[in-house]
Specification:
The complex is a heterodimer. Chain A is mainly beta. Helices cover 9% and strands 22% of the residues of chain A. Chain A contains two helices and twelve strands. By secondary structure, chain B is α/β, with parallel strands linked by helices. At the A-B interface, helix 1 of A face helix 2, helix 5 and helix 7 of B.
Chain lengths: 243, 452
């Protein structure tokens, strides 16, 4: 299956020699095996989907190249780094740990993430942090349209620009954008950036390893909470005529 | 002219005695709906499925055995009911004793006691229950031996631990009551626990997403299914649930995307809450959908390899037998299971009247005031449902349905309920004959297929 690398002592999986199933089975087996290697390298990912999905252990996983859909999906505890670009849904439904993308990410990055940290060093496409449920997402570049659509909890930090319909139908997630916002979605409004938010931003940027961006240069966006309840009139109650 | 006689209770006379004519177009219901809209400025929201009459299993009949076929003895000869779901790719298919499963209904829509009762009844009957748009509760996992875990567009409560704890995974694309629509759970039912499980603020009117956040078309679905298999090490059967609309294409694409099981829900299938206009006007009846699904699977040479589970208006063993004869491998019940637990019980009529309804009509499930303690998050109301007794009632109902199904299958000479086939069916109406693709009774005519 996998071979030990004597220089880094990392376990290596070469996807030109091994199947995706073998790769993920090895990473999953490490969860229940205290003797298993904690450090892994995945070579020649070749754009394959679902690489390192479903890990449930404190592993360090370095993926040396571009990956397809759902890389590190539903990650628990592991620190995954992709030295390349990601397809759709990187770190979807991440629970904990971290996923760092050194290149760009396609749409739905960190979709429905419930905990942990997702960092995209490049740009992220549409629907970044869609339906976010508690995870933190930091994008060094810009994001596409419908970012944080219906996002419920967690934080999205965008150091570049945001596309149209940012935060549409937003719940309690907090959004920070440094550059321009092409347009806000329904019920998303700009809010004051107070000291506690700057402190929060500094911590997020630090965790993401971003040192060249000033936390005070962001603008904050959140829900106006107008869509939280149906708008029901009661024309009869307010009129003088009997029901 | 004689003055109209008052009703015996002294209320206003009924219209016929005045010679009044009710409009077929603007009937009393239509008038009421316009008045209600004018009063509130919002569409009517309710639970349940389509209430309008649509062609259904009642429009089909089974051809019992006679000289040309011989029957099996009702109480003596074996008539198998077991079904295996997920034989295509999963390492651990579901092995069920009966071809009737419990459809997905959320904790949130239902009380924790109701979910537990469903689990108890299903487990006693050797069948499965299904989570819903609100995640998996520990009570549910504990009480249900075989539990199908839904992955919905909202992804409320979704987590890989529950995926691994589940016995099967059901990707919900849509449901029969509202193909193309997302879920709804109004503030009255978003209790602290429900809010916490769904990562939502308490008491908001929740409107779930209608599209999955990380995939759109069938090619993406194929990759999503592969991801779920990878996460669960290819152990769990993957179901894909669709609401009946463009069924032929949807089933073909779900099968092509790698589903182990397709779950097909017709427009009579219930919902916890959605717009009445959606329930009554979107989707097609189950009767029309099953033959399309079977045709799609047969063309792909996947009929019986990809199992077909159908739901939406299943009430009795007659419905089950006819659904299986049309080519389904199993059915799911939702509304019928709630009725078995005690929903709409006549004993509660006075309480239904207090909340503006009546036993047999109650569908304002979203308001959380269910006197039966089933469709509520109110602790006092929920405490009314004894999960042990509820489970027993459900098991009794399921036993009856299975006995009925076997009775009909044996009458058709079948030693297993899966041996029922379209050839065992005829239709009472031209519409049902056309939809079910079986002949009109007494003829060889299948409208659209051959000449009269």
């Amino acid at each position: 299956m996998s071979t030990a690398n004597p220089t880094t002592r990392a376990e290596q999986v070469d996807l030109e020699l091994q199947t995706l199933r073998e790769c993920n089975a090895s990473l999953h087996a490490a969860a229940g095996d205290p003797a298993a290697a904690r450090s892994w390298r995945v070579l020649n990912p070749g754009g394959r989907h679902s690489i390192a999905a479903g890990i449930d252990a404190q592993l360090e996983v370095e993926i040396e190249g571009h990956v397809g859909y759902y890389c590190a999906g539903m990650n628990q505890h592991a620190a995954v780094r992709v030295r390349g670009n990601c397809g759709v849904g990187v770190a979807e439904n991440i629970m904990s740990g971290s996923v760092v993308v050194e290149g760009n990410a396609s749409q739905s990055a960190a979709a429905t993430g419930r905990g942990g940290l997702v960092v995209v060093r490049g740009d992220a496409a549409a629907r970044c942090a869609i339906s976010l449920k508690g995870a933190d997402v930091v994008v060094r570049g810009s994001i596409g349209h419908m970012g944080a659509f219906m996002a419920q909890r967690g934080r999205l930090v965008v150091c570049g620009d945001a596309g149209d319909a940012l935060g549409d139908s937003l719940y309690e997630a907090r959004l920070y954008v440094r550059g321009s916002v092409a347009g806000l979605g329904a019920d998303c409004v700009e809010k004051e950036l107070r000291d506690e938010h700057v402190i929060e931003l500094r911590a997020l940027l630090e965790r993401a390893g971003i040192v060249d961006v000033d936390a005070t240069s962001f603008r904050r966006y959140g829900s106006e909470r107008r869509l939280y309840a149906f708008d029901v009139d009661d024309a009869i109650a307010s009129a003088s005529t009997p029901r | 002219m004689m003055p109209p006689e008052p009703r015996s209770d002294g209320s206003a006379p009924t219209p016929p005695q005045l010679g009044l004519r009710e409009s077929a177009t603007f009937d009393r219901l239509a008038i009421h709906q316009i008045q209600r809209a004018a009063r509130t400025g919002i569409y009517d929201i309710r639970g349940g499925g389509a209430k309008r009459r649509v062609p259904h299993f009642d429009d089909l009949l089974l051809l019992g055995a006679s000289v040309s076929r011989y029957p099996l003895e009702g109480y003596r000869e074996r008539c198998g009911t077991e079904v295996v779901l997920g034989t295509r790719f999963a390492k651990r298919p579901l092995e069920l004793d009966i071809p009737v499963t419990i459809a997905g209904m959320s904790f949130g829509a239902l009380s924790a006691n109701a979910k537990e009762a469903l689990g108890r009844g299903a487990t006693a009957s050797g069948t499965s229950t299904t989570t819903g748009d609100g995640g998996m509760t520990p009570e549910e996992r504990l009480s249900s031996k075989t539990l199908v875990y839904q992955l919905l567009p909202s992804r409320y409560g979704m987590n890989p631990d529950d995926l691994r704890r589940a016995d099967a995974i059901e990707i919900v694309v849509g449901q029969g009551a509202k193909p193309g629509g997302g879920g709804m759970l109004l503030g009255q039912k978003i209790s602290d626990r429900v809010a916490q499980m769904r990562d939502l603020p308490r008491r908001i009117d929740q409107r779930s997403a209608c599209r999955h956040p990380d995939w759109t078309g069938p090619d993406d679905l194929e990759i999503k299914i592969e991801e779920l298999r990878e996460i669960t090490d290819w152990e769990k059967p993957i179901f894909v649930k669709i609401g009946a609309s463009r069924t032929y294409y949807d089933v073909a694409l779900a099968a092509k995307a790698g589903a182990d099981v397709v779950v097909l829900d017709g427009m009579q299938g219930g919902t916890a809450a959605t717009q009445d206009v959606f329930i009554e006007h979107v989707g097609i009846p189950l009767l029309a959908a099953i033959p399309q699904a079977v045709a799609a699977l047969e063309e792909l040479e996947l009929h019986r390899t990809v199992q077909l589970v159908v739901s939406g208006g299943i009430r009795s063993g007659a419905d089950v037998a006819k659904a299986l004869a049309l080519g389904a491998d199993a059915v799911s019940v939702g509304t019928a299971a709630l009725i078995a637990l005690g929903d709409n019980a006549p004993e509660l009529d006075a309480e239904y009247a207090r909340i503006g309804s009546a036993a047999g009509y109650y569908d304002d499930w979203h308001e959380g005031l269910d006197p039966a303690g089933i469709l509520t998050q109110d602790a006092d109301l929920a405490a009314r449902l004894d999960p042990v007794l509820g489970g027993r009632r459900l098991a009794n109902y399921l036993r009856t349905v299975v006995l009925e199904t076997q009775t009909l299958a044996r009458a058709c000479g079948k030693s297993h309920v899966h041996n029922l086939e379209p050839e065992d069916l005829v239709a009472l109406t031209i519409e049902a004959a056309a939809m079910a693709r079986v002949p009109l009774a007494g003829t060889n005519w299948i409208p659209g297929r051959n000449d009269l």
